[in-house]
Amino acid sequence: xxxxxxxxxxxxxxxxxxxxxxxxxxxxxxxxxxxxxxxxxxxxxxxxxxxxxxxxxxxxxxxxxxxxxxxxxxxxxxxxxxxxxxxxxxxxxxxxxxxxxxxxxxxxxxxxxxxxxxxxxxxxxxxxxxxxxxxxxxxxxxxxxxxxxxxxxxxxxxxxxxxxxxxxxxxxxxxxxxxxxxxxxxxxxxxxxxxxxxxxxxxxxxxxxxxxxxxxxxxxxxxxxxxxxxxxxxxxxxxxxxxxxxxxxxxxxxxxxxxxxxxxxxxxxxxxxxxxxxxxxxxxxxxxxxxxxxxxxxxxxxxxxxxxxxxxxxxxxxxxxxxxxxxxxxxxxxxxxxxxxxxxxxxxxxxxxxxxxxxxxxxxxxxxxxxxxxxxxxxxxxxxxxxxxxxxxxxxxxxxxxxxxxxxxxxxxxxxxxxxxxxxxxxxxxxxxxxxxxxxxxxxxxxxxxxxxxxxxxxxxxxxxxxxxxxxxxxxxxxxxxxxxxxxxxx
Length: 491
Ligand SMILES: NC(=O)C1=CN([C@@H]2O[C@H](COP(=O)(O)OP(=O)(O)OC[C@H]3O[C@@H](n4cnc5c(N)ncnc54)[C@H](O)[C@@H]3O)[C@@H](O)[C@H]2O)[C@@H](O)CC1
Ligand SMILES: [K+]
Fold this sequence. Notes:
The protein has 491 residues and is of the alpha/beta class. It has helices spanning 4-16, 21-39, 54-64, 85-96, 135-144, 217-220, 254-265, 277-286, 305-312, 328-340, 370-375, 384-398, 432-444, 449-471, 477-487, and strands spanning 45-50, 70-76, 101-104, 117-121, 148-152, 189-193, 206-210, 243-247, 270-276, 291-295, 317-320, 344-347, 363-366, 401-404, 409-412, 417-420. It folds into two domains: 4-220, Rossmann fold (3-Layer(aba) Sandwich); 240-487, UDP-N-acetylmuramoyl-L-alanine:D-glutamate ligase, CATH 3.40.1190.20. It is built from 15 helices and 16 strands. α4 links the parallel β2 and β3 (101-104).
């Protein structure tokens, strides 16, 4: 099963792996034509109802694969209004190949000549709201005809994620819109691409899943698609893109500052640091952009839990651990803090060891390296696939998301697993882990824990690769921070 949102991410990852959209559309169209061939013999009449997006583009390709059939490609809209370049190219290819096309803008001009097969390629996953005209009328005509109806990817008017009509937030199958009942194509067959869609199972149609050549690696590994949707809403206000509290420092002062600055560069609006008073000035000295809150004394200990919880309450995410040290007081603090905190937290460094034993309502993203993973009671292996399986089962056991750092990072929430290949040996320098924890913290303020961990690993490694390209093995952790804004751009 794959959601529309994940499908878009995987599509972008496939393009980054050298399998561009145009190739996917070619395979999709080919798969649609195969379905038509299975339904009707050559000579049969096939009416392709095409929208202006890529769903329609799939049908333009299908028409090319249907030589020997009496094909009509009917575009709902003007050719100039075809939305994507790839669909436009495939439309133009029809003309060049002398395959008959028609374009209809007015619903009143729509009529179907009693075809044997109708291909519904009006709307796919890019639909917004209930069907408009002329799609609405075309859907009615398709439903009234005796033809076998083959839907491309998803029947037009159906939400691929819910199975309900498009434009209904509940997706419950209830009619929507201004009083009228929701029109949708009642397909006999659906050719859907790459993987099953959650909304198709409940439909009264035969569903074929077509392999369109998206490599498994596009799902297995992080890629640029994992950043889609993490961009800033242009209308947002200060604080809406994430408020992060870093709790750490004491024996080390650089670590909490690195995490905090990283969170800012990865997109958080406000980042606060709670650290011992004795080092507050030093931490502040690293950057005027940080809001530093001192906790009495020179080490964080259990006496600070109340104050830390108070500070945490105003933030979306806590990053716990950078520079905290492994003293008894610090460990006790981490244990008690987590047992009383119920929000979302990234747990790193010396705070990691308390995770397996602590009883917490918090949602944690733990970022251990292999050694810390073993310290937590987890297992590791040389083979990356085996290691990923072990990370998954350990994440399931502890009930939190794990991001296990290595040459290939492994991320799992106990269910899904994602691997990250960005990064380089130059990043073994001190502080890069603090940068990662901060970046994941910033992302966890705007998306779910698993997505934040995967995207954080990806951007951190990407920033490291950009730094290594310039500085080789001379890179330092702050070089990554400087390159995070570019790495986190989602276009
Ligand atoms: N990785 C992928 O996601 C792939 C997608 N492919 C195809 O691309 C489709 C998605 O393409 P698009 O994102 O271009 O979207 P669609 O082709 O689903 O439709 C988008 C366009 O339809 C119009 N529209 C939107 N809502 C409407 C409504 N309620 N009534 C009437 N018109 C409306 C708008 O002009 C919009 O731009 C998939 O369903 C699939 O068929 C395939 O080509 C292969 C790979
Ligand atoms: K469709």
